[in-house]
Amino acid sequence: MSDLHLYDTLTAKKRPFTPIEDGKVGLYVCGMTVYDYCHIGHARVMVSFDVIYRWLSRFYQVNYVRNITDIDDKIIKRAGENGESIFTLTERFTKAMHEDADNLGCLRPTHEPKATDYIPQMLNMITTLQNKQLAYQGDSGDVYYKVENFADYGKLSKRRLADMQAGIRVDTADDKQNPFDFVLWKSAKESEPDETKWQSPFGQGRPGWHIECSAMSTCCLGDNFDIHGGGHDLQFPHHENEIAQSEGATQKPYANNWLHVGFVNVDGEKMSKSLNNFFTIRDVLKDFHAEVIRFFMLSSHYRSPINFSDTALKEAHASLSRLYHALKLFHDDEIIIDECVWQSDYGQAFSRAMHDDFNTPKALSVLFQLVGEINKAFKNNELDKSKHLAKILKTLAEPLNIAQAGPNEFLQKSLNADGLSETEILAKIDARTQAKIDKNFTLADQIRDELNAQGIELEDSRAGTMWRRI
């Protein structure tokens, strides 16, 4: 698919995408460290790469690998605080991560390698680096990567090692030869439990964080693969260190394209527990429909920063509701996915947007153009035209995994759990219907006003009285 263009962080250019192997794509995304519930920053990475995966899968056989970090300082600390095994902790939060991703409508990756399953491969890579004079063991027993011996260090983040070193003083208690050398293997500490210690040529210990991804990505996708992705915060030092390790060990280019998802800010500030503006996915799902969160994430380009707030989510809810209102003009079984509509002008416009570095805001604008045309045709009693346009809308929205539920199913979901129950609402609608049959229009209007005051909007249509929460 020669018309797909990706913005590559390494070259800082948007370039035509050409896979290494015709018809196939290898995609690696840095996953979660499973010691706590996923937050909205994780949600953005999940949703962004889910859409990238879905779109690529329309044209290629995609091997989507997203790792799970299940050994790490934070994991050891949290397990100790809880008085539980690290494996009990990581199993629980891996399950929670999957629940969150499923709720957000994300497909599971092709493979989800766990770091603890790849310790031998990490040790092999560390040994290779040591043999190539790119690693050394300090007095503490820790093994470090020697950044000065990798000429291209800093190429991803556009940083020069000499500039970074300026003004930096090495602590005399530190056994690093350079302050930017990073750990490949951490020697075992007596205070840490035995389950965090593995045997190695360098003594008992455990891997550093960066080596985990280098080993898992190259084992699952090969020494050179198509796309490496993750959050913008991982660009330096994590992804920079991955390049140094992988290319230092294999002497081959690591990933051909680097995609980075922009930051999530909260009310204009960086999300941080210290600022008390840190929200887990589960926190947000208590007040907002999961598809609203997904739509909100897609309303900005994946590379751009996005500002999270209740106001922004309410606006996303209103916008998504417009799509569903256009679809609910017809019965669900009248609007089915039809691949032929991709050849329409709307399908071509949507595809051009997605081929342009997965430009979801522009793709969404095509959907809203369709909404206007659907409503116009329906108002003019051009039902066949309106129905055909609705079919295009639903089909084009499928790769974004929005507007795929039954319209009433979505529209009747509340922004929060407060208010009338569905049973109470339907009872009032039945009472209003009976009042209209009895020609008691004053009572019918009174019931409508009462419902509206409680956040329930009614709409009479040829299919009966529909309701939604507002």
Model description:
This protein is an alpha/beta fold. It has 3 domains: 10-261, HUPs (Rossmann fold), CATH 3.40.50; 266-412, Four Helix Bundle (Hemerythrin (Met), subunit A) (Up-down Bundle), CATH 1.20.120.640; 422-469, no CATH class. It contains 16 helices and 15 strands. It has helices at residues 40-57, 73-82, 86-103, 119-131, 161-165, 209-221, 235-250, 281-285, 290-298, 310-327, 345-355, 360-379, 383-397, 407-411, 422-437, 441-453; strands at residues 5-8, 13-16, 24-29, 61-66, 135-137, 143-145, 182-187, 205-207, 225-231, 255-261, 264-266, 269-270, 306-308, 456-461, 464-469. It has a 4-stranded parallel beta sheet with strand order 4-3-9-10, with helices on both faces. Strands 5-6-7-8 form a 4-stranded antiparallel beta sheet. Strands 12-11-13 form a 3-stranded mixed beta sheet. Strand 9, helix 7 (235-250) and strand 10 (255-261) form a beta-alpha-beta unit. Helix 4 (119-131) crosses helix 6 and helix 6 (209-221) packs across helix 7. The longest helix is centred in the C-terminal third of the chain and has 20 residues, at 360-379. The radius of gyration is 26 Å and the shape is elongated. The two termini are 43 Å apart. The relative contact order is 0.10. The model has no long low-confidence stretch (mean pLDDT 92).
Mean pLDDT: 92
Shape: elongated
Total DSSP helices: 16
Q: N-to-C terminal Cα separation, in Å?
A: 43 Å
Strand portion? 5-15%
CATH class call of the largest domain: Alpha Beta
In terms of structural class, how would the helical and strand content be classed? alpha/beta
Full CATH superfamily name of the largest domain: HUPs
Major beta sheet summary: 4 strands, parallel
Please tell me how large the radius of gyration is: 26 Å
Number of E-state strands: 15
> Ranges with pLDDT <50 over ≥5 residues?
none
What is the percent of helical residues?
Answer: 40-55%
CATH architecture of the largest domain: 3-Layer(aba) Sandwich
CATH topology annotation of the largest domain:
Rossmann fold
Q: Give the neighbour order of strands across the main sheet.
A: 4-3-9-10
Keywords: Aminoacyl-tRNA synthetase, ATP-binding, Cytoplasm, Ligase, Metal-binding, Nucleotide-binding, Protein biosynthesis, Zinc
GO molecular function, one term: ATP binding
Subcellular location: Cytoplasm
Cofactor: Zn(2+)
